[in-house]
Each structure stands twice: as structure tokens, then as C-alpha cells.
């Protein structure tokens, strides 16, 4: 299967309320040979206040945010969706995409009335080169150089990892340059540690993760925390009853005799803390669950002989009653989210109806005056609100005065905040952040002054 390596540069790190400013992607074949590339930038949305630190990191100026030669955010997202559909089916991947770029991309598709699950439906799957780098650092530490951060700790940040391994990364934090660096690291890991590559790549399929955790054989779980890789001997022991992709694994450093007969309330406590017996892995996020043979040092790392690891795994997996109670404990530990106050937080409340899907397609093909009419016809209130916003942001003049005034109030609330409602960064938040940035980055005084002036006149 082909790969789509992609990256985003954004207004900040909030995957619900920040915005993509630059998107870049490279399509490769299964052997990582480039086939095609795509890149796009866009203007800033009026209700999004960028984080000053993000603008400095990506070298985006206020003038670039409002450049009339750039497409609107909505126009860019239509082009991105069209390109990604044309490249499907593929494995969509990047560097830390499963934790950041992917949630942000989903939210952006949702807000622009497009299929939220484009990258993992219709034959598409998802991977993350950061997972591969973490597994390589743990299982084949001599295969790649791991740089040391300014704080004296090992780091797998792409902007330092790629140069440490021979990639000329002068344009770090440019989306296309970061995609090129990611492909470079993917090739390096594939070529230097083929066993790690071939062990992790099947995990793009959540069914493979489930299969590996459904046996009585112990597995090696690779984790990476605060720059330090770890390998844990684990065995599957259940899942969340409402979310089967949320898997529980038993940390075999803990003696099953101490845990199997605990109450459900006590099992909830065993999901917390560094020495917890129950750990959570997500089957749809490429967890590094591999065969113990890939980690010869696993017994020493877990301070147990392999025979005892195997015995404990068999004891845990044989206790079906324990597995059922783990499910109950997970449901208590991770209850349903409270209803969100703003539409951005309601993305997972359900799929659009077939009728609303048809309205979305018609909306995208229509002129703005017609889009204003279509916006009022959505059955689902979420999509009705999002469609109205799209019209307001892109062509407010076609809206009735009453509706336009309502949305102007919404825009003012977003920029200045509203009591009891958290909905992204406000102007006051950005100015406060700017004061911290001024102290931390005195060399960027000219750029900081330009950002401050722009925020003051918004």
C-alpha cells in the first residue's frame, strides 16, 4: 500500500480550537519512493487568535496571516480533502500525527463539513513515524543517534533527531520540510532496523493489535516517557465496554496474585500511578506491542526470568472473570464526556444522516448565496451552526441581517471570551503569552513587536 506522509503548521497546539495555516503531504509507494507532493497555505480565520510562540516558531508574520493572495481556510481544506481522496487508499502517517496532526485534521474536516474519518475509512489506515522512532530507541538503540536536549535529556523531536542522523533540516517547522525529514527517518529506520519496521507496520490495523493482545502469550510494550524508553512485559486483559479500541494490558512486573481478586473499585486505582498493574493502549493508535523476541533484555528490564513472565501471563489470561471486571473498572475510570458547551466539542456525538451528507456535498458545490440557504436546512444542529459560520466568515454579506448580527456577537465572544465558556485563545490570552515570550526570546524583539502591534489593532 502507498504511504501519505503529511504535516501541518498551525496557530498553536489546541487541536480543537487552533487552525491549520500550512499543510504539506508527499505520496510514496510501498518502498517509500516519492510519487507526488502537495502543499497549501491559507489565511487566518477571524475567530482564531494565534499563539505568539507558534508564529515565531513557524516564522509566520501577521502580514502572511492576512495575505489576500492566499486561499481562505475553507478553500484550502476543500483542496486538501480532494487530494487525500485522490491518493486513497493509503497509509496516512507523519511525525506525532496520531497525537496532534490527525486530531486537528479531523476537527478541521468536521468544521468544514467534510468526512471526519477520511484517513482511516474506505481502505485507508494510519501510522506514526514517532512510534517507530520510539520503538527503535528502545529495541535497537544503536541503530540511530538520539540527540540530547538543552535540558540534558534524550529527545526524539524531529527538528533535532533528523539532523543528528544526517538530514539537512535547515527549514524545521516548515510543513513540507518536516515531511521530507519524516520520510528520511522512516527510510533510515526501515533500512537499519527492518525487524522493528516489520513488527510495527502491521499495527496500523487495529485488528492486528487486538489479535496480539488476545493470546495468553506475553508481549513487549514499548513506551517512551520524558526522553526515556521502556519495555514492559504485558498481556491483554480486557477492554472498555463502550470503546473496544481502548485495551487494557496487565503489567507483568506485578504479581497476578496481588491483583486478580481485587474489587472493581480497587481495580480502578490500579489504572493510576507509575506502578499501576493495568495500562491502557489504543488499538487504533499503532501501539508498540511486539513479540518478546524483539527485546532480549526484557527479563532484565522487568526484573523477572522469562519463565515467570510466561507463567504470569498465562494466569492472567486464563481468568475470564478478571477480564470482565477490568472492563467494568475501565468504564468507571473513563466515563462518557460531559456534553460540550460549544459545537467544536461535539464532533463525536454521532455521524451525519444521509440527508445531511447530501446537503454537505450540495453546499460545497454551490455559490455563497445558495450556501446561506442550505445552511438553514441541516437536520443536525451541529452542522447547521458550522455551515452558518462558514457563510459568515467567507461571505457575510449574503446573510440576513439578524443572522449576521448573531454571528458577529459570536465572533466578538470568541475574540474576547465569555464567562463560563472555554472556546480557544482570546486576545487577552495572546497578549499575556506575548509577555512571557518577550522574556524568553529577547533576540526576536522585532518580530514580537510586529505581533504585538497586530494584536492590539484586531
Description:
With 458 residues, the protein is an alpha+beta fold. It has four domains: 2-194, Nucleotidyltransferase, domain 5 (2-Layer Sandwich), CATH 3.30.420; 205-333, PX Domain (2-Layer Sandwich); 356-416, no CATH class; 427-457. The chain is 45% helix and 14% strand. The protein contains 19 helices and ten strands. The protein has helices at 52-58, 62-65, 73-86, 97-111, 129-139, 158-164, 175-192, 194-200, 206-212, 264-269, 298-302, 306-317, 320-333, 354-365, 368-375, 381-395, 401-416, 427-440, 445-457; strands spanning 2-10, 20-28, 34-41, 90-93, 125-126, 219-225, 228-239, 246-251, 278-282, 289-291. A five-stranded mixed sheet has the order 3-2-1-4-5, with helices on both faces. Helix 14 (354-365) runs antiparallel to helix 15.
How are the SSEs placed, and which strands pair?
Blueprint: E1 2-10, E2 20-28, E3 34-41, H1 52-58, H2 62-65, H3 73-86, E4 90-93, H4 97-111, E5 125-126, H5 129-139, H6 158-164, H7 175-192, H8 194-200, H9 206-212, E6 219-225, E7 228-239, E8 246-251, H10 264-269, E9 278-282, E10 289-291, H11 298-302, H12 306-317, H13 320-333, H14 354-365, H15 368-375, H16 381-395, H17 401-416, H18 427-440, H19 445-457
Parallel strand pairs: 1-4, 4-5
Antiparallel strand pairs: 1-2, 2-3, 6-7, 6-10, 7-8, 8-9
Helix pairs in contact: 5-7, 6-7, 7-8, 14-15, 15-16, 18-19
Keywords: Hydrolase, Magnesium, Metal-binding
Domain ExoI C-terminal: 339-458
Cofactor: Mg(2+)
Amino acid at each position: 500500500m502507498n504511504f501519505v506522509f503529511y504535516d501541518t503548521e498551525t496557530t498553536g497546539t489546541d487541536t480543537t480550537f487552533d487552525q491549520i495555516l500550512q499543510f504539506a503531504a508527499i505520496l510514496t509507494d510501498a518502498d517509500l519512493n516519492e510519487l507526488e507532493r502537495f502543499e497549501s497555505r491559507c489565511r487566518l480565520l477571524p475567530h482564531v487568535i494565534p499563539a505568539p510562540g507558534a508564529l515565531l516558531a513557524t516564522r509566520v508574520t501577521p502580514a502572511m496571516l492576512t495575505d489576500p493572495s492566499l486561499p481562505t481556510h475553507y478553500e484550502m481544506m476543500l483542496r486538501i480533502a480532494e487530494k487525500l481522496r485522490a491518493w486513497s487508499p493509503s497509509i496516512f502517517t507523519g511525525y506525532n500525527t496520531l497525537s496532534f496532526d490527525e486530531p486537528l485534521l479531523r476537527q478541521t474536516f468536521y468544521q468544514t463539513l467534510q468526512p471526519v474519518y477520511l484517513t482511516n475509512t474506505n481502505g485507508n489506515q494510519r501510522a506514526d513515524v514517532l512510534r517507530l522512532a520510539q520503538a527503535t530507541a528502545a529495541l535497537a538503540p544503536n541503530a540511530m543517534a538520539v540527540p540530547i536536549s538543552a535540558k540534558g535529556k534524550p529527545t526524539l523531536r524531529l527538528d533535532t533527531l533528523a539532523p543528528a542522523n544526517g538530514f539537512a533540516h535547515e527549514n524545521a517547522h516548515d510543513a513540507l520540510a518536516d515531511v521530507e525529514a519524516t520520510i528520511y527517518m522512516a527510510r533510515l529506520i526501515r533500512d537499519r532496523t527492518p525487524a522493528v519496521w516489520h513488527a510495527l507496520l502491521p499495527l496500523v490495523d487495529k485488528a492486528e493489535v487486538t489479535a496480539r493482545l488476545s493470546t495468553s502469550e506475553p508481549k513487549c510494550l514499548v513506551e517512551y516517557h520524558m526522553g526515556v524508553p521502556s519495555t514492559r512485559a504485558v498481556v491483554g486483559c480486557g477492554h472498555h465496554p463502550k470503546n473496544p479500541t481502548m485495551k487494557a494490558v496487565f503489567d507483568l512486573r506485578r504479581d497476578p496474585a496481588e491483583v486478580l481478586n481485587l474489587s472493581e473499585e480497587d481495580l480502578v486505582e490500579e489504572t493510576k500511578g507509575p506502578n499501576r498493574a493495568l495500562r491502557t493502549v489504543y488499538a487504533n493508535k499503532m501501539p508498540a506491542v511486539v513479540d518478546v523476541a524483539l527485546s532480549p533484555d526484557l527479563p532484565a528490564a522487568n526484573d523477572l526470568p522469562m519463565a515467570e513472565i510466561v507463567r504470569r501471563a498465562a494466569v492472567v489470561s486464563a481468568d475470564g472473570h478478571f477480564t470482565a471486571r477490568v472492563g467494568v473498572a475501565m468504564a468507571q475510570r473513563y466515563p462518557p464526556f460531559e456534553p460540550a458547551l460549544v459545537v467544536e466539542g461535539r464532533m463525536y456525538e454521532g455521524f451525519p444522516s444521509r440527508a445531511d451528507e447530501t446537503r454537505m456535498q450540495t453546499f460545497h458545490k454551490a455559490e455563497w448565496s445558495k450556501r446561506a440557504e442550505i445552511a438553514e436546512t441541516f437536520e443536525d444542529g451541529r452542522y447547521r451552526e458550522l455551515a452558518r459560520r462558514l457563510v459568515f466568515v467567507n461571505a457575510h454579506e449574503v446573510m440576513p441581517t439578524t443572522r449576521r448580527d448573531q454571528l458577529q456577537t459570536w465572533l466578538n465572544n470568541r475574540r474576547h471570551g465569555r464567562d463560563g465558556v472555554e472556546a480557544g485563545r482570546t486576545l487577552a490570552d495572546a497578549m499575556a503569552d506575548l509577555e512571557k515570550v518577550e522574556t524568553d526570546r529577547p533576540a526576536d524583539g522585532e518580530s514580537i513587536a510586529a505581533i504585538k502591534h497586530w494584536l492590539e489593532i484586531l
